[in-house]
Design goal:
With 210 residues, the protein is mainly α. It has ten helices and no strands.
């Protein structure tokens, strides 16, 4: 008797599954196909992106290893349209460095300033560019403007915040604010998170100022 009931139960389940399949089978197959297509597209995107990034990195390496600086600059300019934002930023920074080393200082300064203001670029690239810009303009930039930039909220958590503080201390020293400069250097020295090289430089300036 139990075998008969079990057989009936199995038949009922089969009938139920068949009805579900007849009603929704096409949707189930369509859904599975959509998943497979989506996975295939995603895989293609990953592989094509990887290939494209490898080509961009290769172009960047070739550009910075070119001995002729003018050719190197032109190759780096070609990377301005790069889809890799980080490499694009590095290429711009390197180009500014080459401008400066070939006595095109105005082009270097203007490029560094534009990089620092370009929100499409990586924050590290922008802050590094701003640091280099302020370092070049340290002697001529208005004291209040420089301090306002360095003390801005945007730079409080910057990876280069201690180096910006050093620039602030140097600017204060240049304009004759020795006491404020000393306090800034001491703040760098007393901060346990300050880079070692920066602490060493600050100690030397502290000795000079005392």
């Amino acid at each position: 008797m139990s075998d008969i009931l079990r057989q009936v139960d199995e038949d009922l389940r089969k009938d139920r599954l068949l009805r579900i399949w007849k009603l929704y089978g096409i949707y189930i197959v369509g859904f599975i196909l959509l998943i497979l297509i989506a996975l295939a597209i995603h895989q293609y995107y990953l592989s094509s992106t990887k290939l494209r990034n490898e080509e961009i990195v290769e172009k960047y390496i070739n550009a910075i290893n070119t001995t002729d600086k003018n050719i190197s600059i032109n190759q780096l300019i070609d990377l301005d349209e790069s889809s890799n934002v980080y490499i694009k930023g590095l290429a711009k920074l390197k180009r500014a460095e080459l401008y400066y080393s070939t006595d095109k200082k105005d082009e270097a300064v203007n490029l560094l300033e534009s990089i620092s203001k370009d929100d499409s670029l990586d924050e590290v690239i922008r802050h590094l560019s701003l640091y280099k810009y302020l370092m070049i303009k340290l002697d001529v930039l208005d004291q209040d403007l420089l301090i306002e930039i360095i003390d801005s909220n945007d730079l409080k958590e910057s990876k280069f915040k201690y180096y910006f503080k050093e620039l602030k201390a140097l600017k204060l020293l240049i304009v004759g604010e020795r006491e404020k400069s000393l306090l800034t250097f001491e703040a760098i020295i007393n901060d346990e998170k300050s880079p070692i090289d920066l602490k060493i430089r600050s100690e030397k300036f502290k000795e000079i100022l005392k």
